[in-house]
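User: Earlier you gave me the apo prediction for this protein. Now I'd like the version with zinc ion bound, so I can compare the two side by side. Same sequence as before, with the ligand SMILES added.
Assistant: Got it. Here's the input I'm using:
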Amino acid sequence: MSVDVSRLRQTIRQAEEARQGHVQAILQERGPLRPGSIVKVRRKCGKPTCRCATGEGHPATYLSCKHEGTTRMVYVPAAAQRKVTQEAQRYRRVRRHRACLAKLAQQTLGLVDRLQEALVSTEPMMPPPSTDSSHSRARLRQGR
Ligand SMILES: [Zn+2]
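And here is the structure of the complex with zinc ion:
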């Protein structure tokens, strides 16, 4: 047998442990979560006398989020920046753990398929006793 069955088992076990880790992390998450990601930009205020007219724009924070297929940029007021940033980070964390769960589930199914394949018997079945004529006829029909 070319497949190392005990190594397959070990890999399945490791995937299962990893899976439990991600589930634990998700269960420990208390929120609140904020879908979207924080984008920091520099923008010009438009006043011709402002220093931003010639230099860099004023820093501004936006929350980029998908809404019905399109990306929306929602302005984040300075006073809410810290809170919204943390909420967005939490959301991303949960999404990352979820993505890992999906990948591990896929991986585990593949490993289980390989393990199952490796454990399938390749031994021929015991031939029926030659004295039993009905079995002999059945064998003949199958072309053996
Ligand atoms: Zn300005």
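For your comparison, keep in mind: The helical segments are 5-28, 81-119, 133-141.
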